[in-house]
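Xanthine dehydrogenase family protein molybdopterin-binding subunit
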Amino acid sequence: MSITSKRIDRRQFLKSSSGVALFIGVSGILPQLISCKEPKKLAEQLEKHRLTAWVQLTEAGELTIYNPAAEMGQGSMTSLPLIFAEEMDADWSKVKVEFSPQEAEIYGGEGWRPGSKLMFTVGSRTTNSYYSTMRKAGAQARYVLLTAAADHWDVPLSELSATNGQVVHQKTNREIGYGALVPFLKMPETLPDFAEDQLKNPKDFRLIGKEIARTEIPAKVDGTAQFACDIRLPEMVYGVLERGNLHGAKPDLTNEEEILAMDGVLKIVPFDYAIGVIAKTLEQALDAKKQLRIDWSKSQASGYNSQQIYAEYQKIADRRQKGEVTVEIGDVGNALRSASKTYMIDFKNDYVYHAQMEPLNAVVQVAEDLQSAEVWVGSQQGPDTKLGVPGLLGILPEKVTVHLQYLGGGFGRRSMNDFVEECAVLAMEMAPRPVKLIWTRKDDITYGTFRPLSLQRLQATVDATANITGLSHCVVGDGGNLVASGARNDHYDIPNQLVEWREATHGIRLKHWRSVGHGPNKFAIECLLDEVAMDQKIDPVDLRRKLMAKSPKALATLEKAAELSDWNGPVKEGRAKGVAFVEHGSLGTGVCEISVDRNSGKIKVHNFWIALDAGVIVQPDNVKAQMEGGIIMGMSSVLKEQITIEDGRVQQSNFDTYQLLRMQDIPDRIETALIASYDHPEGVGETATPMVAGAIANAFLRLTGKRLRHLPFTPERVLEVLNS
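Structure:
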């Protein structure tokens, strides 16, 4: 197949219809490019031997490949550069990786809208959205090198090949390393706009799909990896905020003079919802914070009690009038009228906190003339790659430079810019001195942004032959997509389906939490299926086999998980297995084996087996690690984690009152089977977590005959169910 080529306009920054940014930085071409409209900071990074916007090449053959995504433990610092290196035919042993500049026009991946570009590490979208971009960019870099070799040797381009950092001319038995080509590099007159089928056949991959060590792990082990918390700048001062635990309340500081007289305190900065303190040291700032005397106003949240609200939610679900319909297939009304049997069940989910390991923090330095700023932060980025700072400070976006750091956990919380914007406000007050803002753990829990509390009312209809003919799913809660997403059933053949959301808002701060609405909604769906199966005397796996008959990929994960777990084999006395299926980009079926201490109410998960179809697997070992981490986090949220609100006030304040899973609670084994596929990669970071609740509850149902319908499954709730 011929390769489509385009004439290169050297005065244009973006090259190729795919949106891949080629920035050839060699010879006399570089100054012309720098004189165009690209951001100053990006131009400064284009050194003598830059090959493209994605890679820098030295004469020694050393490559620096740029990672456009956040690195919060999910492996983007390896997976995305690896994709680039695969198509470039680079020598991986000579590759180092750095964060790219935060410029979406150049380094953005595919957005949710056609033609849009985002630098947003959320929704398990990193590998999925950058896969084609990185492949094409790598192939174009390879083409530049091949063209240079063809000109240098005066041979046809078609006679050359590349492998492991070398260009080869078989006819004359010549080889030349990529680094040795640097003196001969120049801008080609035409540049291929590679189509998908003109890239490597996945069967020929030599890096993708292989066991390759992650690039950032050594630095994380020896302590040299830099997180935002590690940033220390000359003249830096420290900021903290007192936000209270009543969301939306306004503060009235009554002892400002006393605080300003304290040792090291430099300034007090009021916010609508908080009081900020800036001091010479963090200790001085925290000491001053403890002494703040604040009268707090009432807010929308005043009087709200989270554990009492479910009765009101049930009344909302009782209403005949539909809410906002998000899915409607067939006619659930007809299915209800013709049903042999109907099941209606309510499921409840308490608030959950992100509990990321590294406290929220940022460093911002505003120039003395207030016309530029620099930001050091661990962020999941966002629709605005400058994280809200330009608009807040009234300066041009190109005058804000964001230095992305490693993240000590995100899970959706660091896709918010509130902590960055707070730091920018403080830094504006102290310009040109840099300010480091740190949220304490108590700050982050009491003024957190939680996965919403919600109620799911499910109604299923079954015909005379035990086929599920209809499923109605009513979600009650705040947050729109935060509660209503994840309720589709594309891989279950249920002819009549309805999903609707009914809003109830209380002024509590909410945010995407790992897997968003999939956690509560898949819990409800998967538990409903097992309750139907038990009542109809059908094996839960057999019921899902029937429902997945038209979805062979989903069915393959079910069959593999059943095989891994020896689903029909003998089980130790006092144990039982439960199954759950989840689609969150990738397709996964999980089976867990549990026991229950009937005296304490504590559930013990002994084993978890997962079968996953995620398309092309870039890093197999890392995907398995993602599954293991997702299961552990899921178990923590299902068995332990709970935010409660009384009279509008958050009751938890640290990890003594907000319980997390402990080492002694983890399973004996988590085993993951990856199903081979050449399909486009799908996300894996959020597939495991939402399968945990359903699998545990379904295992509990098989073990005890009792139903767990309220997350989390605390020992107190388990005992209540056992004794009911």
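The longest strand covers residues 586-596.
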